[in-house]
Design goal:
The protein has one domain: Flavodoxin domain (Rossmann fold, 3-Layer(aba) Sandwich). It is built from 7 helices and 7 strands. The protein is an alpha/beta fold and 177 residues long. The two termini are 14 Å apart. It has a 5-stranded parallel β-sheet with strand order 2-1-3-4-5, sandwiched between helices. The mean pLDDT is 96. The chain is 41% helix and 21% strand.
């Protein structure tokens, strides 16, 4: 199984990229590639720019999505929504391939330093991504990332760890369906 994972943030020290990587690594023995969205630097999407052609970075991003059996995406939340950088990439990608997630199973995640863990943006993605062909097989928000997660130990909070183990069990069943 080939997993493509990324944090939907252009932050160089993205906790969402770290969260997506961790979750992906717990699924099974797989081929995992963790994307850094900084590799997909794009001009701000406008209809005028679209008429000049789709930037090569968009083609590269869509190719990565198509190469995956499973996509694991963790969303950073800025002002209750997607980060501006990810929204721009998403706009370009949807112009290139409207059903960019067609035939793909997705795990949608979010995390943040605060107590809600990016729940608002996660909810927006859960509502939106099926319109682009996504088969969402699991979701989880991890609040207070720096208090509840350690890169070597994983999830520290007992209740959140139980939620995560339940997520993993359900995801593994759905992958094998």
């Amino acid at each position: 199984m080939r997993i493509i994972a990324f944090g939907a943030s252009y932050s160089s020290g993205s906790i969402n990229r770290e969260w997506a990587r961790y979750v992906s690594s717990q699924i099974s023995e797989t081929q995992l590639e963790v994307l850094n969205l900084n590799d997909y630097d794009l001009p701000v999407y406008t209809v005028e720019r679209e008429k000049k052609g789709i930037p090569p970075a968009v083609n590269s991003f869509i190719s990565k999505l198509k190469s995956a059996d499973l996509l694991v995406i963790s969303f950073a939340e800025y002002n209750g929504s997607y980060t501006a950088g990810f929204k721009n990439l998403f706009d370009w990608a949807s112009v290139h391939t409207l059903k960019m997630f067609e035939g793909k199973k997705l795990i949608l995640l979010s995390t943040a330093p605060g107590p809600r863990g990016g729940k608002t943006v996660l909810s927006a993605a859960i509502d939106r991504f099926p319109q682009h062909g996504a088969d969402i097989i699991g979701t989880m928000s991890l609040p207070r990332f720096n208090q509840n997660f350690d890169p070597t130990k994983g999830i520290l909070d007992v209740e959140l760890k139980k939620d995560f183990e339940k997520l993993l069990k359900n995801v593994k069943q759905k992958i094998n369906e």
